[in-house]
Amino acid sequence: MRTIDWKDESNSVVLVDQTLLPKEYRIIECKTLSSLCEAIKSLRIRGAPALGAAGGFGIALAAFLSEAKDIETITRDLEVAGKTLKSTRPTAVNLSWGVDRVLRAISDAFDVQGVRDIALQEAKDIAEEDVAINKLIGKYGAKLLKDGDTVLTHCNAGRLACVDWGTALGVARSAIAEGKEIKVIACETRPLNQGSRITTWELMQDNIPVTLISDSMAGWAMRQGLVDSVLVGADRITQDVVFNKIGTYSLSILAKEHEIPFYVAAPISTFDFDGWEGSVKIEMRNPDELRFFGSEQLAPKDVEVYNPAFDATPMENITAVITEKGIFYPPFLLDEVLV
Amino acid sequence: MRTIDWKDESNSVVLVDQTLLPKEYRIIECKTLSSLCEAIKSLRIRGAPALGAAGGFGIALAAFLSEAKDIETITRDLEVAGKTLKSTRPTAVNLSWGVDRVLRAISDAFDVQGVRDIALQEAKDIAEEDVAINKLIGKYGAKLLKDGDTVLTHCNAGRLACVDWGTALGVARSAIAEGKEIKVIACETRPLNQGSRITTWELMQDNIPVTLISDSMAGWAMRQGLVDSVLVGADRITQDVVFNKIGTYSLSILAKEHEIPFYVAAPISTFDFDGWEGSVKIEMRNPDELRFFGSEQLAPKDVEVYNPAFDATPMENITAVITEKGIFYPPFLLDEVLV
After folding, report:
1. CB within 8 Å of chain A, chain B residues 264-323
2. Does the pLDDT value for residue A304 go beyond 80?
3. Looking at the 3D structure of chain B, how many domains does it have?
4. What value does the mean pLDDT take over residues B111-131?
5. Could you give the C-alpha distances from A149 to A92, A181, A186, in angstroms and in order?
6. Cβ distance of B210 and A296 shorter than 8 Å
7. What is the ipTM of this complex?
8. A315, A320, B166, B308: which has the highest count of C-beta atoms within 10 A?
């Protein structure tokens, strides 16, 4: 099933609980707004595109749960629900975007049932559009992969970060759908191991050959000739750099040294047309992520830790940016994608 | 205390149990050969120089435990003990070297007590020489570090890999002993986390400022201007490359890209005068090291894994090799160090 979806029979939101992977594949059904909020807060669902859909479906869920008898009351209920949803991950831009898009759509409704219908349709549209965008990214990106290629990827830019298909992993899926043989090397992606926990799992589910390495092995794998291209997603793309999971910048230098193409696959919603490397503050995460893994202690409890969540890769290290509007080769102006 | 030492009061070998670090600092006392063998086998003591001393002290221990009444019998006892010791880590060159050096020395003895005295003296000499060599490496290497420098290191090339002082970390210690302010950035060193578990611990014990990062953060830390030099140890140095813990090669490329000096600190016993990159087979370790950390599952149990124990860094990526005979700048012939 999709990472997140609507269940018509019970008017509820269903999603894959990613905190249990790879040990257990469990679908959870959110019948109340608070259970959906809990799922977002505790990262049972994560990834920018997936959170956009979660925001949309959250408003639809609130519309079906509202006992309002008139349009003013249900509109007020949904605005409250929107605030509650947004507060679960205040910095997740896509979550707010999904909430607001559905809230804007319901202004076309004439009655309570109309609000429900429109909210649900708009939420479903967000999810469908996300899949369609990923399929387009995949279609364009697949041209860059040759039959027999091995692509190295970092973190999880796969279907579990989206509604379905994925961005970076979507490109690999599209190439495979075209009949090419593609293998993937997944960097484990310390400290939260999205590569080992999620990327490997979702590729194995689809019978796509995947080999797990530690982040420190990427350079050596390239020197051994095991890597044909690097393919990653993006958190935010400015005119000068691509912000993505910490470790992406190092991979771009290692790829350059070994003359391996370095591709970024991301929807245009990731573009920050007015931003620059210097305008973005990189979030520092909890030091305990490097001191512990679950119940296991990895380091002295009071050791000083440097733990930036992401890094910035200069455009000159990037061979191409793959979007739903086509492939763009740096240097290019972000505005060109809109033409 | 030292990583490994002899206790005169009880004629036993004492060592720091490194499997318990950083949670617990415990000294274990080996009064029997089998307890010392168990300590070596289960990595309570590790690191090439430290294992050389363990081999020497092991033969001394066997000499004191032997109930032989004549020199032929004790010699036979010690040869058996030597085989037992070597079998605990058959690929550890230094362990065999320590055993054989003491076995050779006892041929000068005239009686059983003489065997015991000579064996113990030779074992103590091995340990003392190891410390002296590290201090010389430190003395030469310290010249390369400036007051206020931050050095980035990988794995553990510290006193816990040696009898005392350390190679790469010994250089930092020597610079600090000369009055320079030196800070260390320790890469956690996946998959076995010697950086987070051991390097941070031993530096914190000595009040040397240390910051822990994941291996994937090294490039970004360099780009942020946080690193003045990279300083690592070596497992084996051939004419063309330096074999060291997996991840070292990537660091050498990242350092080159950021124009940061890349130093290798190692005793001449690490030199393989006849070896080349192609003549050394890199050991592939257990895939479970990337699938689990202790009791925590990191990845699908049956995921394919690439897990080389070490990599090879070409001499052209190395700024200098620091030995007890001085500093050598590539390109140089290994034989030059013997002149």
Report:
1. 290-291, 293-308, 311
2. yes
3. 2
4. 97
5. 34, 7, 14
6. no
7. 0.93
8. B166
